Amino acid sequence: MPSKSPLPTSPSNEIPSPLRSLLIIAGSIIVAEAMIMYVLHLIPSHSFFYEGLLDTISLTIIISPVLYLFLFRPMVQHIARDKQSQEKLQRAHDELELRVEERTSELSTLNKALLQEIEERKKAEDALRQSKEKYRSIFQEAIVGIFQTTPDGKYLSVNPAMALMYGYDTPEELIASRSDIETQVYVNPNKRNEFKRLMEKQGFVEKFEYQVYRKDRSRACWSENARAVYDEKGGLLYYIGTVEDISERKNAENALRLAEKKYRGIFENIVVGIFQTSIEGKSLIVNPTLARMFGYASPDEMITALTDIEHQFYVKPARRAEFIRLLQESDSIAGFESQVYRKDRSIIWVSENARSIRDDTGNIIGFEGTTVDITDRKRAELEYRTILKSAMDGFAITDARGKFLDVNDAYCNMIGATRDELLSMSIANVEAIEKPDEIRAHIQKIRSVGYDRFETRQRRKDGNLVDVEISVNYLDIEDGRFFVFSRDITERKRTEIQLKILSSAVEQTADNIVITNREGIIEYVNRAFTETTGYQADEAIGRTPRILKSGKHDILLYQTLWETILSGNVFRTTFVNKRKTGELYWDEHTITPIKDHQGAIVHFVSTSKDFTSQKLAEQEREKLLLDLQEALANIRTLKGLIPICASCKKIRDDKGFWQQVEQFVMEHSEATFSHGVCPD
After folding, report:
1. 474-499 pLDDT tens trace
2. What is the DSSP letter of 635?
3. Which of 50, 163, 614, 664 could tie 168 with a disulfide, CB 3.0–4.6 Å?
4. CA atoms of 357 and 366, how far apart (whole Å)
5. 650: which DSSP letter?
6. 270 exposed, middle or buried (CB, 10 Å; 0-12, 13-18, 19+)?
7. Tens digits of residue pLDDT in 561-605
8. Residues whose CB is less than 8 angstroms from the CB of residue 452 and which lie 6 or more positions away in sequence, other chains included
9. Distance in angstroms (rounded) separating the CA atoms of residues 4 and 91
10. 428-435, long-range: CB < 8 A, 24+ apart
């Protein structure tokens, strides 16, 4: 705090020194005595008393002001100033004390705060140390993998659990071995790019699943939770997170999904109705077969509509009570037959197999089972027999082991045995392809799935084999029943063989064969085509025959071609085509429309033969004849005999060309040929 400057002093304010005071007093007395002496001198007569009194009065009058002005006043002022100074000093002292006290209080408060901060920091450091120790313990002992990686795919740190997940003994071995996560870790490297995109977009991933390669190159499925760590400026430093091996869970999920798919396939495709109802009589679950059985468009529609089974379902409501009573007594029933209403209130017969559903306390809370529409069986077994007898396909019913229980006449004729003979046999007695163990496995498969369709061969009574197409459905009624439809496809198989032979012949024929669709797109070429044109099959299929166009024909020819074949007629012509190499060749073409059973044109078949060599020979012969005609034009005046060897191979051949020359010469000149024999 700055000090105040002392007030300036004047001579009147200063306290006189003792010497000065004496001098002032002495001077004052001398002045006073001089004045008294002067006054006394003026007064002629005066007494001693009067002189003393006058002396005293004069001294008092003169010395008192002097003493006041030069001694007492300065002293009083000095004392006053000193008192003021002491008061100011006291005030300054008090102010200083107050400030010291306030500062001391502030320092005390700051000291306490500092001590508290030091204590808190110490606690924080202890907590941090404990947290680090705890984190290190968690990091080391955690059963899930913990990692820290760079953005470019290098591990900075991993815990032992993660090393073991990879198949490494130590984290150091893992870090040293995996320097590029994208290519060395991910089975699908694109998943790493997806991970980085998610990190860039949202800064974290949760339950990010992917497959990895372990040390032994086996695969594992992992689930990862991670986040990105940034610096103060927002720059990406690294990724940190945890991984969990979910391979077993994934395998279990896949197995469950397959099981659910299998169950769903059975549930939705099985030929019997499946249901689950509450004990109060409300539908909970029905499969599509059951919904269709009762005339509903979907299971949901049936569940919504059917809320009181006793009165909406059963023609005789008492059957519901009987159904419940039987299930309460034995927990399951089979072949419970009743008349029931469909959606349109028409009546059908059904057979139900069901069991009770109980809670943990043993109380029945619902029922589930299967329903089979047995209306036809109940209504018209005679009609059933009539239909089976008139059916063109073979039909048989077998038990769960494959023994024949019923067959129709068509199947008897197919196998060449009587009905009684077949009813004493089983599938194993007529099956010619599958062995007994395979037959049992196939039967079990059909029982589990509910249906199958396949081709096989069966043995007739006379020992001959017949090709058959089998369509079979399994119903879990009366200990299991297979309903088998058999169609004789022996003739179809023979036709297929003939088609294969024909296809082989087409492929191996020397003629070029091209098949196109109605728009002219090539769908098939044979080997001769590829050899003639140089185009391989995969080069020609999907394109049009324009790839062979040489430019030697005008557009009118092609217009005529299309008009002819689109009208259903065969088109024949000779084309000059171009091979893949650019070389021209001559083709004799026949293009035939192929029609379906309704007479509509669906394909075109083009057959052609390369006769380039014959064409070139013909052109050469025509050229020779022209040259000869030009030569003979100059010998029209030729006369006399021209001797020609009758057997010389140089000028005669078996095709009659020389005869044409002789004829031409004789017609255009007066010369005659004489046929002799060469001298040699």
Report:
1. 998 888 899 999 999 888 888 777 77
2. G
3. 163
4. 5
5. T
6. buried
7. 999 999 999 999 988 999 999 999 888 889 999 988 888 999 999
8. 442, 445, 446, 470, 471, 472
9. 13
10. 428/402, 430/458, 430/459, 431/456, 431/458, 431/459, 432/456, 432/457, 432/458, 432/459, 432/465, 433/457
DSSP alpha helices (H): ranges in 409-489?
409-415, 419-423, 427-430, 436-449
Longest dimension (CA), the chain: 230
Phi, psi angle pair for 398, to nearest 5° = -125, 160
Give the burial class of 456: count Cβ atoms within 10 A of its Cβ; 0-12 exposed, 13-18 middle, 19 or more buried: middle
| Contact call for residues 213 and 177 (beta carbons, < 8 A) | no
Determine contact, residues 569/577, Cβ cutoff 8 Å: no
Q: For 304-314, write each residue's pLDDT tens digit.
A: 998 899 999 99
- Among 167, 130, 170, smallest CA distance to 159 is for 170
| DSSP secondary structure letter of residue 69 | I
Q: Which of 204, 250, 266 is nearest to 474 (CA)?
A: 266
Q: What size, in residues, is the chain?
A: 680
CA 13 to CA 145: how far, in whole Å? 95
Contact 371, 293 (CB under 8 A): yes
Three-state SS for 151? coil
Q: Please report which confidence band the pLDDT of residue 3 belongs to, taking 50, 70 and 90 as the band edges.
A: very low
The rounded distance, in Å, linking the Cα atoms of 414 and 393 is 9
Instruction: Write down the pLDDT at residue 587.
Output: 87
Which H or E element spans position 466? Answer: strand 465-475
Give burial (CB, 10 Å; 0-12/13-18/19+) of 87: exposed
Three-state secondary structure string covering 345-387: CCEEEEEEEEEEEECCCCCEEEEEEEEEECHHHHHCHHHHHHH
pLDDT at residue number 8: 45
Q: Which of 506, 496, 452, 504 is nearest to 474 (CA)?
A: 452
Q: Which residue has the higher pLDDT, 545 or 503?
A: 545
Distance CA 312, CA 186 (A): 59
> Is 516 exposed, middle or buried, given 0-12, 13-18 or 19+ CB atoms closer than 10 A?
buried
Burial class, 243, CB count within 10 angstroms (exposed 0-12 / middle 13-18 / buried 19+): buried
Closest CA to 354 of 318, 330, 321: 330
pTM over 0.70: no
What backbone phi and psi angles, to 5 degrees, belong to 615? -65, -40
Tokens of 295: 């005339």
Distance CA 179, CA 156 (A): 10
Summarize pLDDT for 404-462 with one digit per residue, the tens: 999 988 899 999 999 999 999 999 999 999 999 999 999 999 999 999 999 999 999 99
Helix H segments across 226-281?
247-269
Helix and strand counts by DSSP (H, E) for the chain:
24, 22
